[in-house]
Amino acid sequence: MDENSIGRDIVDSAFTVHRELGPGLLETVYEVVLLDELQKRGYAAERQVSVPIVCRGHPFDEGFRADIIVAKRVIIELKSIEKITNAHKKQVLTYLKLTGMKLGYLLNFGEAMMKHGITRIVNGLPE
């Protein structure tokens, strides 16, 4: 599957989870339930994946932890906050650049309506 197909399933899964749980719970709750939903759909998905960074030719294990990585192709960063900021969007873009992945989603489960909590972020992915 390509990134865009995976992305459609991620968005659909996010709607399903938000509809079942509602807004405002802890991020970790949405993380484990969303992971379960994606795995039920047949995806190899992992949570809290350590992603090392390479700087000046040296790898550093203290890079970052991706909330969820789906099929080793798409990064999901979860929030449960009142409002997404540009800093959150830049965070996901940086994760994409560091991993070489092309598609990421910033999902804010704090929104009353999930459609307002979905931000798609690309890194060189053709539309």
The total of beta strands comes to: 5
The percent range for strand residues is: 25-35%
The SSE order reads HHEEEHEE
Strand order of the largest sheet: 1-2-3-4-5
Silhouette: globular
How many helices in DSSP terms?
A: 3
The CATH topology comes to Trna Endonuclease, Chain: A, domain 1
Unreliable residue stretches: none
Provide the structure class.
Answer: alpha+beta
Instruction: Give the rounded overall mean pLDDT.
Output: 94
CATH class: Alpha Beta
For the sheet with most strands, the description reads: 5 strands, mixed
CATH architecture: 3-Layer(aba) Sandwich
* Helix content estimate: 25-40%
Number of domains: 1
N→C terminal distance: 15 Å
What gyration radius follows from the Cα positions, in whole Å?
A: 14 Å
Helix/strand layout:
Layout: H1 3-21, H2 27-40, E1 45-55, E2 58-70, E3 74-79, H3 86-99, E4 103-108, E5 118-122
Parallel strand pairs: 3-4
Antiparallel strand pairs: 1-2, 2-3, 4-5
Describe this structure in words.
It is a single chain. This protein has 127 residues and is α+β, with helices and mostly antiparallel strands. The chain has a single domain (3-122), classed as Trna Endonuclease, Chain: A, domain 1, CATH 3.40.1350. Helix content is 37%, strand content 32%. The protein has 3 helices and 5 strands. It has helices spanning 3-21, 27-40, 86-99, and strands spanning 45-55, 58-70, 74-79, 103-108, 118-122. Strands 1-2-3-4-5 form a 5-stranded mixed beta sheet. A hairpin with a 3-residue loop joins β2 (58-70) and β3 (74-79). α1 (3-21) packs across α2. The two termini are 15 Å apart.
